[in-house]
Each structure stands twice: as structure tokens, then as C-alpha cells.
Amino acid sequence: MMNFSTKITKRLCPYLKNTSVRQEAASSAYSLPEAMKQCPYVKELYSGFGTEPEGVSQSRICPAANIGMETTDSNEPKLFKMGLSEPICPCRDFNSQESTSCQSEDCLKEEETDTTLYDNKLDSSISQLKDEGRYREFINVERHTGNFPNATRRQPEKKSEVVVWCSNDYLGMGQHPKVLTAMHEAIDNSGAGSGGTRNIGGNTTYIESLEKEVAELHKKEKSVVFSSCYVANETALSTLPQILGPDTIYFSDAKNHASLIHGMRNGRCDRKVFRHNDVEHLEELLKDTDASRPKIIVFESVYSMCGTVGPIKEIVDLAEKYNALVFLDEVHAVGLYGPQGAGVSDLIDLNNERVIISGTLGKGFGVYGGYIAGKSNLMDVLRSHCPGFIFTTSLPPAVLAGAQASIATSETQVSKERIINNNTRTLLRKLIDSNLPVMKSDSHILPLFIGDPVLAKTASDMLLDEFSIYVQPINYPTVPKGEERLRISPSPVHTPQMLEDFSGAVKEVWTHLGLRLLDEYMQDPKMHGKFFEAPKPGKQIEIGENHLYTFMDNLVL
Fold this sequence. Notes:
Elements: H1 4-12, H2 14-17, H3 21-26, H4 32-38, H5 40-46, H6 105-108, H7 110-131, E1 141-143, E2 150-154, E3 159-164, H8 177-190, H9 198-202, H10 205-217, E4 222-226, H11 229-244, E5 249-253, H12 258-266, E6 270-274, H13 279-287, E7 295-300, H14 312-321, E8 325-329, H15 344-347, E9 355-360, E10 370-374, H16 376-385, H17 387-390, H18 397-408, H19 413-433, E11 446-449, H20 453-467, E12 469-470, E13 473-474, E14 485-488, H21 496-513, H22 518-522, H23 548-553
Parallel strand pairs: 3-12, 5-6, 5-7, 7-8, 8-9
Antiparallel strand pairs: 1-2, 2-3, 4-10, 9-10, 11-14, 13-14
């Protein structure tokens, strides 16, 4: 491999620019001393870094010898003053003493060619996404206070009213009066921004109060608030192996979110992936791991694209058995489940000191930001070592105040859970009665399977343009190729008429596009167990014993 000095010389010297890297690497004679003997440019460039080689002849004059050089009394070469007496053509034969300029088309267009190289690669990347039907178009949808899930779609020439069906503001808390009041008061009191990082000027009463609120919510000793839960997950998981040691090993669910995956990868330690929600496979991997190694099991409570729920109790039991820590992502559960809205772990009344919880202040809480909650010594480590915490501006006071108000507004939590429960079941029944392929889910998320990126985008566009229904297509890399879908999230503010309109519109789009129906998939052995099955006449849909609503039905409230 070409060494550093060769790379620098090749970059600056027109002769070496046109020399094949492979040719250089293959030549055992090519070395820095040899180059200094042959080229005064190289000699002058590197003579300050060591002893000048003997026997350097001045009889061979390199036309490039003065390029980029500046006379100096210092031994350090000055490389950045580019004064040329004549244009240097990269196609020129520098072994020739003739001073002629090249008029080739490639040389005349050298500057254009250099920029085109980058443009071509950038344009090719976007073209590939468009060809595969994966190019993402962001729809301008403006929400209105007190009127969610209704919103205004804005286009260059017109605007229209739509109903939003894919929002992660699951409870509509982003428009709750108490949240908005708290945010207005914080702006009036402290202004817009935070003033900097937590260390410089961004630590406020608002953020300290919120961190205390989050810790109490999850019954943990402390919490640390981050700019988002993506940042929280990524920076925490990349930092922990630096503290626990390079022999740390992660055990990751196959369907973990990108923030978790990237964090583990950036931790630069071993990682073993277990099949989605497969506790037996996880234990096999734990058994095969040296008991003395630090171990962290990473998974989610509610998986956002398929709606499945992680086997939290079983995984925590394995963590106890094999002395591992647990990193539990509750992003799509906080605010929705449990007596205080602390997520699935709250719903099942699980509190274990070896469980680290990450969550969001968006989605169920309807505002913005992320956090991690756990033991106080771990929180101290994160705030002291995580780059994603140290080197970024802290959240504004208004956001922090709104998030705290949302968490504190928990007295109506149970009723909102019930409404989501009812709306989800009602819509699920309507979709299945229409013979539509709803993938099995254990939560409030209903994935409608399509299996093709172009058709998924077309279906989404038709629903928006023809029926004023906004639901975005989900494709790779969010889900595997061939598993494209529409992701539906019914909320407490979707009315019975909206549920009826949605199911009818989807049925029409499926028929128009000739998309496969539920009964067709049920005949495919490869799709066995993937979808909710149509119930027998007079029977309820079998949602499964692991479904959160099955658990909630058995609660004594």
C-alpha cells in the first residue's frame, strides 16, 4: 500500500499524478530515497525530514520541481504556495525537455471532469433510489392546534385538507393545552434557545426538573436528557464499551432500530445477533460466551415497523442468569402503556436495577428529545463521556417545559390507552373484513403489507390524492426489501367516521392496483403466520396472548 509521503507527493507532483498507483506499489525500486535521487522536487520537499541521500544528481531537471515550493530558512517545506510559471499539463511527458503544452480534449476539460466525477456519483445514487422506488418525498403537512389528526397539505399551487394516519404523536399530546401553556410560559420567561451545551451555558432549572421527572417516571435513580433518542441510543452504546472494556459483547435483536445498531457498531466491540424475540436463541448465544466478559442485551419493547412486543421478563431473567446488563428501548411505548405511561416495563410492573431504559420525549409525549434512565453511577458516566451529550447544544427551555408537562399529565392515561385499544381493534376488524393483509402486531401499530416499493408509493399517493388520507410508505432500509408496507397508527382522536372512511379508501386502492389480498397470502406457505387471520362468523379476531391489549384486558383498573 502506498505510504503517506508517496500519497502527498503524488497529489502535488503532476508527473506522479499520472503514474499508476499499482505500478508504484509493484516496483520494489520505488522508495522515497530513490525518488529524491531522481527528482529535485521530491528532494527539496522531503530533505527537511531526514538525511539527504548521497549521490543526488542535479543534471536531471524536473519541470515540476518548483511547484508548490516556497524558499524558506526553515527545514520545514512550504507546500501550499502554488506559483506556476506556465500551466502544467497532466498528460505532459516530463522526461522530454520540450516545453510544449497539450491541447487534448481531456486536458482542456480537466476542471470540468474533476467536478463531474463527484456529480456523477451523487446523481447516480439518487437515480438508483428512484429506479428502485425508494426515493423519499416529503409531503408538506401542516398540523393545526386543537384539530389533529386533521391537517393541511400544502403544494406549490394549492392546499387541501387531509387526515393523518401515520403520526408518531400517538396520543395527540403535541397539542394538549397543558403542554402548550407550559411551553409559552417558558418562552416568556427564558427566551428561545438554551445558550449552549450543558457545560457552557445550557443547564437550566427546566432540564434538571425534567431529568428528575423522567427518573421518577421509570423508578430509576437518575436520568440524562439528550437532544433526541437516536442520539441517546447511539452515543450511549458507542461509549459503554470504552468504560466496560474492549471485551464487552452486545447481544442484539435482529429487528433493532438503526440508532441501536449504529451505536453498537461504533462501540467497536463484538456483537451477536439473535433472531427476533427468540429467547431460546439468545440463551444459546449467552451460553457460548465467556462468563467473565461484560455483556449487554439490547432490544426494544415495541418494534415500530412491525408492532411486535419484546419478551421483556424473559430477557431480564436471562440477564440475571448470565450476569448481563439490559438496554431496553421504550421509545414507541412511553406515554402509551402503564399506569404512569412509563412503557411496557411499567405495564408489566418490572423494575430491575440492571435494566437501562431509553425513551423519547416525542411520539407518545408529543414534544421532542430523548433520554436514558438508570443507576446514578451509569448516568454520571454517560454525561461525562458521551460525545453526543458533551458536544451539542442542549434542548431549549420551551421544549423541556413542554415535555415535563406532558409526562406530568398522566391522570388521563388509562382512558387514552382504552381509546387506542378500541380504535385499533375496530380498524383492524374493518381491514380484515375487507380481506386486506394486516401483519400480525402486538401493539397499537397496524402494518398493511404490500411487498413492493413502487406499489407501496403508488398506494400512498392514491390515498393522499384521491381520498385525502396521509399515510407514508415504509421501504428499505427501514424494513427489508420485499417487505414494504403502509404503517398505520390509530390514535384516540381518530373518530368512528374516520375509521370507516379509511378502511373503505384502502379497499378501493387495493382493488384499483390489483394488490394481493389476505386470502391469497394465506394460501402461500411462505407467508404462514405473518398476518392476522379472518375470524369465523360471530367470533372475535385472535390477537394473541402476547398482545398488549390482551394483557390490558386482564388488568384490574
